[in-house]
Structures are given as C-alpha cells and as structure tokens.
Specification:
The protein is mainly alpha-helical. It is 45% helix and 4% strand. Helix 3 crosses helix 4 and helix 7 packs across helix 9. The N and C termini lie far apart (65 Å).
C-alpha cells in the first residue's frame, strides 16, 4: 500500500470550495449539510472550510445552504456547564475536535452557532467564569457595606463557576492524593471548604479546595 501526504488545498479558490458544497447538496438531495456529509462525500476536509470562511456555518451561508439545526434556545449557562464538565474531565482546555459525544452533550457546532466561532465561545466562557472570581474574594466580602444578620458572609453552597475556578487553580487534581479524572476516569472531584463552613469557614476561593470523593469522605469523617 502506498502512503501519500494529503494536499493542503491552499490553491483552491473560495468559488471552488462553494461549488463543492453545492455538489454535495445536489448529490444527497439535502438543503442543509453537516460535517459528516462533507467528510463522507466531499473532496475537502471540514477544517479547510473553517479556516477559509471562519466557521462551518459561514461556509454553508456562502453556498446558499441552510445551517444544520442546533439547539439555539439553550441557556448560555447550560452550554458553559457542559464546557466546564469537559474541561474537568480532560484536566485542560478542550480542543475543537474533542467537543462531541460521548465527551460532550453538545457538538462544537452548537457553540459555533451561538458564539460565532469556537474560539469566541471559549473566550466568553472564561470571561463568564472569571467574573465569579471578582465577587468571591475575601476583599470583596470586606467591602460590603451592609452587615449580614448571620455570622456567615457567604452562602454554604458553592456555585459551578466558583467550583470551576477552584479546580482550575488546583490543576483539576485532588489536593491530597493528586489523582485526576484526566488520568483515571473513575475519579470524581469535589470542591470542599478547607475550614468547615460549620466552624465559620466562608465560601470563598481562598477557603476552598479540590478533593476526590474518597479523600473528601475521609476529611468529613475526621472532622
């Protein structure tokens, strides 16, 4: 069997790429194409269209085709929670090709359709999460003018944005045993108060830590 390198298609014009999409559309008798249609029946890879036109949906629009249907009515927070789950499982920033089932509930195209490009989706997610950090520090609590009626200045529950910030700071690993879902899929990470909330500990970044389920149980038993 002879092995050959794939062509870069740098010399292909935009018109030729658009014509190829139209050819696939006629062949399949479909007015909306997805990436699988192109990969199975097209001459050029999907990434070629994305690099040339900015996104797969932009390429479809240029060809006069309908965009593949994606759940547009999903709340942004739902998309961000899904992205958080992928990030934690991988222990790093997800890559474009990884955002698909079974790792992700939603295809990367859903993020492109909502935010324009995958990069913009990541930037929006990071900004959204980092906004939580601005209101969760000890300094922010001390700056409050209205004194709370209870001894705690924060709620006990840890919202998902703050949880993600803690896990990212701890490199998505258990602070005690060092295990991570990225290397062992059986590991489940939790975020826990270093100083127990019942003992006056606050729900702030400085008082939270990442623990696996086993170490978290051990900590609870020792308190």
């Amino acid at each position: 069997m002879k092995f050959e390198l794939e062509e870069y298609h740098r010399g292909i014009t935009n018109e030729e790429l658009i014509a190829e999409l139209k050819r696939i559309s006629l062949k399949l008798n479909k007015t909306a194409l997805n990436r699988t249609d192109n990969d199975e029946h097209g001459k050029y890879g999907t990434t070629t269209y994305i690099r040339r036109f900015g996104s797969w949906f932009n390429a479809l629009e240029k060809a006069g085709l309908e965009k593949t249907r994606t759940p547009m009515n999903l709340p942004e927070e739902e998309l961000f929670k899904n992205l958080e789950a992928i990030w934690i499982k991988l222990g790093r920033q997800p890559r474009y090709a990884e955002v698909q089932k079974p790792l992700s509930k939603y295809h990367v195209g859903t993020y492109e359709n909502r935010f324009g490009t995958w990069r913009k989706a990541l930037e929006r997610f990071v900004k959204y999460v980092n906004d939580e950090q601005n209101v969760s520090s000890e300094e922010a609590i001390k700056a409050l003018k209205v004194e709370p009626v209870t001894k705690h200045k924060t709620a006990r529950s840890i919202n998902w944005r703050l949880r993600f910030l803690v896990m990212r700071r701890d490199n998505f690993k258990c602070k005690k045993c060092g295990r991570s879902p990225a290397t062992d899929q059986s590991i489940i990470l939790h975020v826990d108060h270093a100083k127990a909330w019942a003992n006056g500990g606050e729900t702030v970044l400085e008082n939270l830590q990442t623990l696996c389920s086993i170490c978290n149980i051990g900590k609870s038993n020792s308190e």
